[in-house]
Design brief:
43% of the residues lie in helices and 11% in strands. The protein is an alpha+beta fold and 911 residues long. Strands 1, 2, 6, 7, 8, 9 and 16 form a seven-stranded mixed sheet that branches. Strand 4 and strand 5 form a beta hairpin. Helix 29 runs antiparallel to helix 30. The longest helix is centred in the middle third of the chain and has 26 residues.
Length: 911
């Protein structure tokens, strides 16, 4: 913790830096911006108010990407159209299209760094369908390590020559040139020493993330937010005060989350495994697609009805599926999630997960509120860029953050450091903002003032909105400006928190005024106006831009939507000139109605504990400290080898971790050797490192030999990862995988099955259909459909398996392998199986059968008592949509009680 400051540092004593490209924020977009700018030859300074190794929303890990447009699995134009629909027509399609076109190359680039994306046995990306419109979700099995991978890139020797990292430096204002208004640097301070910091730059890239600390969580805990709580709207406020336009600030981010826990409900994880959202009666109710505010409106309506509570349903899933979901949700997504459920005595096998709604926030990447940018990340201020969740590129998510970090870094790299005189008034304003808490150290503390501010956000700004409540909000935020200026603080850390509260206040006022200015309802729950309940495209199919006027007021402009690159029939932007709106007028709220009027009748048409202390653990020994110091310099393998064979297992495990972070040449062979270590912790570290680095390991003979030698290690996790890496690096063969089918451990046999699929060893794979473990037989069924030349015959024995999950998987595999007669007849008969899983698989199989056999059987299946069977039948009928009988059958599902079934049936009507 930082020490108290005894005096205000003098402005003349500021520490000054100079660079070509200044990147503010070391998270997703900022890291990529710095890497690209450096690769283009710029001298880069990366500032982070925490530490780049652990900063940003990505630091906790990521279970997958939501918007991967992979060739052959999704079409860029379809993606652009879907984002346009999700954002009710208000998008600059040229910006969204950049993510659609560049996302695949970014996935490949990240993979070259060591980020691991899920692939099938043949090395193709295993994209899942969660959105009803297409397959965009790409899981990341080792997503918890993404930030470590990026940090490793920053610390490569060639990057360290170009990128200087200054941790614990918090900017508070962007500096602009008096002569032309272009961005020329920043002013801020060091959050540990309190030193004032000034940076000159040729260009500035803001990548500070969302304003996650805006609304107050239901828990009341200031930092218990859905978004990363360190993202307090810093970049929103800095861009605004620099004169940049912000847009869509009235379009809030609101998400489903677990009740009483600041973790997402994770439909993107659970749905591909068979989980779904239901009300207390077990009914699916979400009609809209998962990335729209209209879905959140449906969610809120269900919560407010007698059908509440709402749950994420997992209890119907088999044990191995629940285990797979737990391994993601309790490690990569939120490490504390399992502890939370255990504390309540809940288990996914016996309890479904109660869901609720998050507090409001501002976020471009998950909604549409951010700094206005063009298709290279340029803002309206020359040489000022924005990327990631700060930039308004609707529903851009993680891949879009990387794409726009790359675009901004590449474009900014052409500028060189500013050599002119910095504006003294701007520096003095920033200096005063930073140090004013020191002038009255006994003033109200930051937590107290911040709680009050954010409670006003909940009371007056959170949807449903009204002009009166929003006007009360504006009055409260204006009044609180003086309270915020009077906050007290003594340490640099407290100065940082006080500055964050000023950013939150700026964002809160922007959100309230923008919500007042848009006099319609749009985006479902994101902007629901009770006093303007209808969507008004004629007047409001416009972007609402917000700027700081010359007088210091917030003024607005209605900006026409750019002509669509991809036509979307539902929307017809009117075009034309911008419509200046000026400052927004407040609704009179000083009195309840006219002051002297008597009480009026209501119009008839108005709708109504601390851990126990124990012995203090000894600190790390000198050998371990030496290793940790060495690892900071990205050493070559030769320098790490003595530590890898150290007699202390703690040192060996730390050396394995250092290898995983730096990955010098020879890492693969060295890690494979540690799989045979005598200590379980060292082996576990090697297993994790090999799994994380599987796609980038040097795959020579040494690695192959080490992995094969590990197949005899008694540790099952070691044998499993050896097979996994052999398959991923294309180093295994059918004989080795076939031998592993006799392994005693299920997880090893599962990896053997995947290996056999990778080498198209269909005959050997079919022999595993008699495996005693259900999980293996299910994997065999799916694998027989995934080989390069699938055939239906090997699946026949599995159609009679005693386990319904195996029968379901075997029938489902026929959809890819082919379903000729007499198997089509068996699939039709399978629609009467007692197990719903088998019936759903049989319906899927009929997708590949002749229409004459499939359509009548599937039409009957539309009356099945299980919603998942009816959903499978609808999806299979879509494959036969050219047949009149299929279209007639699908039309009957328009009134199905299940929302998913109705939504998929509607696709036939739209085609």
């Amino acid at each position: 913790m930082s020490s108290p400051l005894t005096s205000v540092p003098a402005l003349a004593d500021a520490r000054e830096f100079s660079c070509d490209v200044l990147v503010v924020g070391g998270g997703t977009a900022g890291t990529m911006a710095a890497l690209t700018a450096a690769e283009r030859g710029a001298d880069v300074l990366l500032l982070e108010k925490a530490h780049v190794r652990h900063s940003g929303a990505l630091a906790m890990g990521m279970d997958g990407v939501n918007n991967a447009v992979i060739p052959g699995r999704a079409d860029p134009d379809d993606y652009v159209a879907e984002i346009t629909r999700a954002n009710d027509g208000l998008v600059d399609q040229s910006t969204v299209r950049q993510t659609a076109l560049r996302g695949y190359d970014m996935v490949r680039r990240l993979e070259s760094y060591g980020v691991k994306f899920e692939k099938d046995e043949h090395g193709a990306y295993a994209v899942r369908q969660v959105h009803r419109s297409g397959s965009y979700v790409l899981p990341m099995p080792e997503g918890k390590d993404v930030k470590k991978v990026l940090y490793r890139q920053l610390r490569r020797r060639e990057m360290r020559e170009r990128i200087r990292i200054e941790n614990r430096v918090m900017p508070v204002r962007v500096l602009t040139a008096p002569e032309d208004g272009r961005a020329v640097g920043i002013a801020g301070f060091h959050t540990r020493t309190g030193e004032f910091v000034v940076v000159r730059a040729g260009a500035v890239i803001l990548a500070t993330g969302a304003c996650g600390r805006l609304g107050l969580p239901a828990s009341g805990y200031l930092y218990g937010t859905y978004e990363n709580p360190t993202n307090a709207g810093d970049g929103y406020a800095m861009a605004y005060h620099a004169g940049a336009a912000l847009t869509g600030i009235e379009c809030f981010q609101i998400n489903p989350l677990i009740k009483d826990y600041n973790g997402p409900a994770c439909a993107y994880v659970a749905n591909p495994f068979g989980g779904y959202q239901v009300n207390r009666h077990g009914e699916r109710f979400v009609e809209s697609d998962y990335w729209s505010g209209r879905m959140m409106a449906e969610f809120a309506a269900e919560l407010a009805s007698d059908r509440a509570p709402v749950y994420l349903k997992l209890s119907h899933l088999p044990e191995e599926t629940i285990g797979a979901v737990e391994s993601i949700l309790h490690s990569t997504e939120r490490p504390t999630r399992g502890t939370f459920h255990a504390g309540r005595g809940h288990d996914y096998r016996t309890h479904d997960i109660e869901m609720h709604i998050s507090e409001i926030g501002l976020c471009g990447g998950h909604s549409a509120s951010g700094v206005r940018v063009d298709d290279h990340g340029r803002t309206t201020v020359p040489r000022l860029y924005a990327a990631g969740d700060l930039a308004c590129v609707p529903h851009n998510y993680m891949i879009g953050a990387f794409v726009y970090g790359d675009l901004a870094g590449g474009d900014a790299a052409r500028y060189r450091a500013y050599g002119g005189t910095l504006d003294r008034a701007q520096l003095e304003e920033a200096h005063a903002l930073v140090y004013r808490p020191l002038l009255h150290p006994d003033g109200p503390p930051q937590p107290q003032v911040e709680y009050k501010l954010r409670r006003f956000v909940n009371d007056y700004v959170a949807p449903p909105k009204s002009g009166a409540k929003l006007s009360l909000a504006v009055e409260a935020f204006e009044r609180m400006a003086d309270e915020i200026a009077g906050m007290g603080g003594r340490t640099p850390h407290e100065l940082m928190r006080c500055a964050e509260v000023s950013f939150i206040r700026d964002c809160a006022e922007m959100a309230a005024r923008a919500s007042l200015a848009r006099t319609e309802s749009r985006w479902g729950l994101y902007h629901e106006r009770l006093d303007h309940p209808e969507q008004d495209d004629a007047k409001w199919l416009y972007h609402l831009d917000l700027r700081k006027s010359a007088s210091g007021a917030m003024e607005f402009t209605a900006r026409p939507v750019e002509p669509y690159v991809v036509p979307v029939p539902e929307f017809a932007p009117p075009g034309g000139p911008e419509r200046p709106l000026g400052e927004v007028a407040l609704v009179p709220v000083a009195t309840a109605g006219p002051r002297e009027a008597p009480p009026a009748a209501r119009p008839a048409d108005r709708p109504d504990p601390l851990p126990a202390s124990g012995p203090v653990a000894a600190g790390p020994g000198p050998r371990l400290l030496g290793l940790l110091a060495l690892a900071e310099d990205s050493p070559e393998l030769g320098l790490l080898e003595p530590y890898l064979t150290d007699r202390d297992p703690e040192v060996r495990a730390a050396a394995v971790a250092a290898l995983a972070e730096t990955a010098p040449a020879g890492t693969g062979t060295a890690l494979a050797a540690r799989l045979r270590d005598g200590d379980a912790a060292v082996r576990a570290a090697a297993v994790g490192a090999l799994r994380e680095l599987a796609e980038v390991l040097d795959g020579g003979a040494g690695l192959a030999a080490g992995l094969r030698a590990a197949l005899d290690v008694p540790d099952a996790a070691v044998r499993a990862v050896a097979l996994e890496v052999l398959r991923a690096r294309r180093l295994g063969d059918a004989g080795g995988y076939a031998a592993a089918l006799a392994d005693t451990a299920v997880e090893v046999r599962l990896q053997a099955v995947r290996g056999l699929v990778a080498v198209d060893a269909t005959a050997v794979l079919a022999e595993a259909a008699a495996d005693p473990a259900r999980e293996v037989r299910v994997a065999v069924a799916k694998g027989l459909a995934a080989v390069s030349a699938p055939a239906p015959e090997p699946l026949v024995p599995l159609l009679d398996d005693p386990d319904p999950l195996v029968r379901g998987a075997a029938f489902g595999a026929l959809a890819s392998a082919g379903c000729p007669e007499p198997l089509a007849a068996r699939a039709a008969a399978g629609l009467d199986d007692p197990a719903w899983q088998a019936r759903a698989g049989a319906a899927a199989a009929l997708r590949a059968a002749a229409a004459g056999r499939a359509v009548p059987a599937l039409a009957k299946a539309l009356a099945d008592r299980n919603a998942d069977v009816r959903k499978a039948a609808v999806l299979a009928l879509l494959a036969h949509a050219a047949e009149p009988g299929a279209r007639d059958a699908l039309a009957t599902s328009a009134a199905d009680p299940d929302a998913d079934v109705r939504a998929y049936a509607a696709r036939a009507a739209a085609s």
